[in-house]
Amino acid sequence: MENFTIYNPVKLHFGSGVLSGLGKAAGAFGKKALLVYGKGSVKANGAYSECTAALGQAGINLFEYGGIKPNPVIEDVDQAAALGREKEVDMVIAVGGGSVIDSAKLLSVAIPATHSAWDFVEGVRKPAAGLPLIAILTLAATGTEMNHYAVIQHDALKKKSGYGHRLMFPRHSFLDPGFTRSVPAHHTAYGITDLVAHSLEAWFGEGEASLTDRFILAILQEAMQYGPMLMKDLENPGLRARIMYAATCALNGMTTPGKKSQDWGVHGVGHCLSVLWDIPHGASLSIAYPAWLELQKDRIPDRITELGQSLFGTSTTAGTIAGFKDFFAGLNSPLSLGQMGIHPTIKEKDELVKVMGTNEVDGLAHRLSGKDHRALAEMML
Ligand code: NZQ
Ligand code: ZN
């Protein structure tokens, strides 16, 4: 077991009606807020009106930046940061899914600066200050509500990169599972896939930490038991709540203590699929994970079958891979690019391999070579 430090300052409010605390939380940070949201779901499901009403009652003056797209882009972050600078806001409030919250995290450290937030992502500059960020989550998937990471796309460079800084932890996150009841079936499935993938990135990390492994298995079991039930009963508040909390736990630091690293190779591959074809994040992972497991099955058979034994009662790598494929297929999360209607030409496959190189899709624990990138590209068709 490795030495470790645990630091997570997010004040997480979970459950029905928790937004009643939003006004007080925001009031502690000042009087002017930049409210960030996506392409309209929050206006349809009531989250926007509930937030603006609570903030209005608390006397918070709101400036809005809407239209953040799924697989968010750096241009929106920079434009929203410029607005926040111009209006001299005291805080940033994000209402939506991971794309909105990640954009808000980056712009909360970009507002006090004068350059593009991409400089942070590329490591050219470090944030010196961050505005307080409040997140109101409406989609269970990424875990962004309780971590300090943001993932952002630079279309011109064909890059999708993750970046983390301690100034980017939300000060408060409000998770009312009721807001996730309007998430359509396909995004519900991709969210479950994402939380499973986060658990797997931790499982396949480097180092031994038995209790952490048990936490990881518990999160996987929760997702595998209740995820399929939720897919059949999308309005069920209890199931929405279970999946929402599981998604938070899958990437809030609980799955790392005692390990040397996680892996993140599969996420790297998935990000390349999103850069090239704008595939939703979770869908990219159900395509990439079975291919990655095939690639690794003779390299790390014991680690794969240990998982298979706990989750599917199988003692073979083939049985484990089949178990994951059946699980993703049962959610209706795609297993191949073809299932997303994407049939890459030879030139497009070459481009995918190239983009995996420029995005440094290496894997931290199980290193991927250029030859592996080529093999994965062929296996995801
Ligand atoms: O844009 P709107 O209209 O809001 O619609 C969104 C979007 O179309 C919709 N949606 C969200 N909440 C809804 C809803 N529709 C109905 N009812 C609701 N309550 O869902 C669609 C997808 O939203 P998005 O925010 O893109 O999904 P998700 O939460 O899965 O976030 C994905 C992004 O997070 C990154 C991914 O790479 C991707 O860019 N990730 C962030 C991580 C982190 N910060 O820790 C880790 C993850 O591995 C991941 O990489
Ligand atoms: Zn993910």
Query: Could you say which small molecules are bound to this protein?
Result: 5,6-dihydroxy-NADP, zinc ion
Structural class determined from secondary elements: alpha/beta
Instruction: List the domain count as a whole number.
Output: 2
CATH architecture of the largest domain: Up-down Bundle
What's the helix-strand series?
EHEHHEHEHHEEEEHHHHHHHHH
pLDDT average, as an integer?
98
- Give the full name of the CATH homologous superfamily of the largest domain: Dehydroquinate synthase-like - alpha domain
What is the name of the CATH class of the largest domain?
Mainly Alpha
Catalogue the unreliable spans. Answer: none
Strand percentage: 5-15%
What does this structure look like?
With 381 residues, the protein is of the alpha/beta class. It has helices at residues 22-27, 41-44, 47-57, 74-87, 98-110, 118-121, 185-203, 210-232, 237-249, 265-277, 281-296, 301-312, 317-331, 346-358, 370-379; strands spanning 11-14, 32-37, 61-65, 91-96, 133-137, 149-154, 159-164, 172-175. It folds into 2 domains: 11-180, Rossmann fold (3-Layer(aba) Sandwich); 188-379, Up-down Bundle (Dehydroquinate synthase-like, alpha domain). It has 15 helices and 8 strands. The strands form 2 sheets. A 6-stranded parallel β-sheet has the order 1-8-5-4-2-3, sandwiched between helices. The protein binds 5,6-dihydroxy-NADP and zinc ion (ZN). The site of 5,6-dihydroxy-NADP has 36 residues, from helix 2, helix 5, strand 6, helix 7 and helix 11.
